[in-house]
Design brief:
heterodimer; A: mainly alpha; two-stranded antiparallel ribbon; 2 strands; B: mainly alpha; Sodium/glucose cotransporter; 2 domains; 21 helices; about 70% helix; about 0% strand
């Protein structure tokens, strides 16, 4: 799953280079938003979804232990 | 006067927030610099978003769209959505973990330990501070200019009109020196008393303010233009190129022809003047051009700067737990979209919007960053104008506060406490030292801003490029155990050298849009600094086993 999520994020970065909408403003979404802008708004939504999946399936290990630990060597509280 | 009152009410609310947050201050250095590592998910999201989105998110996005078209969203916003979240997830969480485990307050403390080099801090410190200072100046100057341009008529008996043409300041406007002083003072008060907690609270409030006001402005302007569809139709008829990323042979380019006509008239008038009165020659309008594939792609490197911003590092360390990052990682791209899409559409509409036969943005209007303010002033009430001004100031201050505090923290922890020696400074002395440095930095920034160095705005993108160029350093420090001290020096020095070389090639920032090999210069600098880091690390001795075990512990 971890590999799939990172592969999808990589795919999103490739799909960001949308040369297929480069030279057109149509279709206009809702008669207002040109496709080149609407597509990238969808890219933003897709980024949120994919990073959400990453937070669920690719969470770095060992961090939750840190939540409970105390900073034994906390310079700021010396 | 209405605008002035709204600004005053807004600044008073911020001061009240500063006073309330200061009541929670525990008096320790950890609380002043890191809010006792107790910031939860929502406040962290608002702090990070407010800090990364400057006034550029409102006025710059509209201005760039007016100039370049809707392609700027893909270049600047959707790349940021992907890359900022990547930085939070891949770098921020790891650094938070190291910060909590080993008690770091600043980036330099981490780099000194990870690369086993005290001197690395000496090399990094001036670079990081040097890159932040222009960024601070931009904020203070933008705040002063915004107040000066929006408070015309407030005090006609006190302040006279001055200047000519588009740069003219109306009678009664709060002068630049006073407006920028007011903003510096408000930020100073809540940072001084509230520390990073005050900053986080203020950021949350200001972020909500500028998101809501951006949407309100969009809805009012679109209704004044006869609805969103009508506004888009005007653009498709007169300037369809701003709705895509290419300019075609048969495009009408109405806006450009209008600007050209105004320029020709200005040239005729300029040529007719006697030599002594001529002044600078009028600048011709820029003929619209498309956005190239490479230029668009290379923008992906700019948001990497977020991984190396010292003020973002400080906000990361304030998180209560690793889980507090989840909301920021997910919601950040959505918030960028909510703020940017309306502004980009407004900028595109501004190219062609006509009311009662007159263009809303007059032909010959040469300052894209003033397009949003001009639209609001022309098409809405004083009340909305005042609220939008408050929104712009909110976006400016939500970055300024973190930067002031972070530099204070760096001077205190990386210089004074570090060289005074371990345990030499008490907690109270550290807080006092941090506060004194914050006051000195605010005063110095205010003083420098009064010189109004014109080139500072063009330096903005170079500052971002500088921070982005150091991203390989933090990424390798966190993920590559083979990254060595010599590799770190090679990375920093190569980034600095190539950055300076390209900066000089661009005429020290005088060329507004300087491309190298058809790409943003940052792509070349990141490539060079990564190569230097990898090659030199592979050629030099591994870090000690103790350091490797410390930062890359083997799983038991």
């Amino acid at each position: 799953m971890k590999i799939l999520v990172y592969a999808l994020i990589l795919l999103l970065m490739i799909a960001h280079q949308d040369f297929w909408w480069w030279d057109t403003e149509k279709p206009l979404i809702g008669g207002v938003v040109p496709i080149g802008l609407a597509y990238h708004a969808v890219v933003s939504v897709a980024a949120a979804i994919l990073w959400g999946l990453a937070a669920k399936h690719c969470w770095p290990s060992g961090l939750d232990d840190d939540d409970e630990s105390t900073a034994a060597n906390d310079r700021a509280t010396q | 006067m209405t605008q002035f009152i709204i600004i005053c009410v807004y600044l008073s609310l911020l001061l009240m927030l500063g006073v309330v947050s200061s009541r929670l201050f525990k008096g320790t250095a950890a609380d002043y610099f890191l809010a006792s590592r107790g910031i939860g998910s929502f406040l962290l999201l608002m702090s990070l978003f407010g800090t990364t989105m400057t006034a550029f998110a409102l006025v710059g996005s509209t201005g760039e769209s007016f100039r370049e078209g809707i392609g700027v969203y893909g270049m600047m916003a959707s790349w940021s959505g992907i890359i900022h979240s990547a930085c939070f997830f891949l770098v921020g969480i790891k650094l938070w973990s190291f910060g909590k485990r080993f008690g770091y307050t600043t980036q330099i403390q981490f780099f000194r330990d990870r690369f086993e080099s005290d001197k690395l801090g000496v090399v990094l410190f001036p670079i990081l501070v040097g890159l932040i200072i222009p960024y601070l100046l931009i904020g203070v100057m933008a705040a002063g200019v915004t107040i000066e341009r929006t408070t015309g008529g407030a005090f006609p008996s006190l302040f006279a009109a001055h200047g000519v043409g588009p740069a003219a300041i109306p009678e009664g406007a709060i002068p630049f020196w006073l407006g920028s002083a007011g903003i510096c003072l408000v930020v100073l008060i809540y940072v001084f008393f509230g520390g990073v907690r005050g900053t986080a609270w203020a950021n949350a409030f200001q972020t909500i303010v500028f998101i809501i006001l951006g949407m309100v402005t969009f809805s009012v302007i679109s209704s004044k233009l006869g609805g969103a569809q009508a506004a888009t139709e005007m653009v498709l008829k007169d300037n369809p190129h701003v709705m895509r990323r290419t300019v075609r042979e048969d495009d009408p380019l109405t806006r450009y022809h209008g600007d050209q006509k105004v320029f020709e008239n200005r040239m005729t008038a300029w040529e007719a003047k006697p030599e002594a009165e001529k002044g600078p020659q009028p600048k011709p309008p820029r003929k619209p051009h498309g956005i190239s594939f490479l230029h668009f792609l290379s923008y992906m490197f700019i948001p990497l700067s977020v991984g190396m911003f010292p003020h973002l590092f400080q906000h990361w360390l304030t998180a209560k737990s690793a889980k507090s990052f989840k909301l920021s990682v997910i919601a950040h791209p959505l918030l960028i979209m909510i703020v940017w899409v309306p502004c980009v559409l407004l900028g595109a509409w501004a190219t062609s919007a006509v009311i009662n036969g007159k263009p809303v943005i007059p032909y010959g209007f040469s300052n894209p960053n003033a397009v949003l303010v001009k639209m609001v002033a022309t098409m809405t009430s004083d009340g909305l104008g005042g609220l939008l001004t408050a929104g712009i100031l909110a976006a400016i201050m939500s970055s300024l506060d973190s930067q002031f505090l972070c530099i204070g923290s760096m001077f205190t922890n990386d210089i004074v406490a570090h060289y005074a020696g371990k345990d030499r400074l008490t907690d109270r002395q550290k807080v006092l030292c941090g506060r004194v440095f914050v006051v000195l930095i605010v005063a110095a920034t205010y003083g420098l801003a009064q010189l109004r160095p014109g080139s500072v705005f063009t330096l903005g993108v170079w500052c971002f490029s500088g921070f982005a160029s150091l991203f390989p350093l933090v990424f390798a420090a966190v993920y590559w155990r083979r990254a060595t001290r010599a590799g770190a020096y090679a990375c920093v020095l190569t980034a600095a050298g190539v950055w300076w070389w390209l900066f000089a090639k661009s005429g020290y920032g005088s060329q507004g849009q300087f491309l190298f090999g058809g790409m943003m210069p940052v792509a070349t600098i990141v490539g060079a600094s990564t190569t230097a880091l990898v090659l030199v690390s592979l050629m030099t001795k591994m870090p000690s086993a103790e350091t490797v075990e410390r930062f890359f512990p083997r799983r038991k």
